[in-house]
Amino acid sequence: MTEIRQPQGQLLLRTLAMPADTNPNGDIFGGWIMSQMDIAGGLLAKEIARGRICTVSVDKMTFHSPVGVGDAVCVHGHCSRIGTSSMVIHLEVWAKPMLKQEKDRYCVTEGTFTYVAINESGRPRPIPAQA
Ligand SMILES: CC(C)(COP(=O)(O)OP(=O)(O)OC[C@H]1O[C@@H](n2cnc3c(N)ncnc32)[C@H](O)[C@@H]1OP(=O)(O)O)[C@@H](O)C(=O)NCCC(=O)NCCS
């Protein structure tokens, strides 16, 4: 029996793919998808760091399938490592065609984003102890 893949981590962001976000092929532009991932991961990183953070690196970005205009786009994620000032967050983007209700959601993109907790001068600061 084939195991059906499910999103890993918590739902961090849900939005709609709009016509203004397309590339010349008419699919959704990969840069827009990456920016949604960065926003979603940044939300989780801010919660963990309880304050200001910045993105320091993006790794292992893989685009599995195109996203269509009108698809519901969800970003799920979980933190896999907390260092002194850095957080490694794995993010997955799942799309669900809104006009074809019979079609299941599918994973379109995934990647690993690293964020750093920073102080008011933009320098790394220690992440507070987690509850
Ligand atoms: C993030 C930044 C503050 C780190 O400064 P830095 O002088 O490299 O700091 P450090 O060497 O002390 O590293 C701090 C932490 O970042 C991690 N780090 C630094 N560069 C990294 C990289 N390329 N990839 C992954 N982690 C990195 C270090 O491992 C360290 O983690 P730890 O504290 O958990 O051990 C600095 O590189 C910066 O301001 N970058 C620009 C950020 C930015 O503008 N982002 C885009 C908009 S949000």
UniProtKB/TrEMBL annotation:
<dbReference type="InterPro" id="IPR033120">
    <property type="entry name" value="HOTDOG_ACOT"/>
</dbReference>
<dbReference type="InterPro" id="IPR029069">
    <property type="entry name" value="HotDog_dom_sf"/>
</dbReference>
<dbReference type="InterPro" id="IPR006683">
    <property type="entry name" value="Thioestr_dom"/>
</dbReference>
<keyword id="KW-0378">Hydrolase</keyword>
<dbReference type="GO" id="GO:0006637">
    <property type="term" value="P:acyl-CoA metabolic process"/>
</dbReference>
<dbReference type="GO" id="GO:0052816">
    <property type="term" value="F:long-chain fatty acyl-CoA hydrolase activity"/>
</dbReference>
<dbReference type="Pfam" id="PF03061">
    <property type="entry name" value="4HBT"/>
</dbReference>
<protein>
    <submittedName>
        <fullName>Acyl-CoA thioester hydrolase YciA</fullName>
        <ecNumber>3.1.2.20</ecNumber>
    </submittedName>
</protein>
<comment type="similarity">
    <text>Belongs to the acyl coenzyme A hydrolase family.</text>
</comment>
<dbReference type="GO" id="GO:0009062">
    <property type="term" value="P:fatty acid catabolic process"/>
</dbReference>
<feature type="domain" description="HotDog ACOT-type">
    <location>
        <begin position="7"/>
        <end position="121"/>
    </location>
</feature>
<dbReference type="InterPro" id="IPR040170">
    <property type="entry name" value="Cytosol_ACT"/>
</dbReference>
<dbReference type="GO" id="GO:0005829">
    <property type="term" value="C:cytosol"/>
</dbReference>
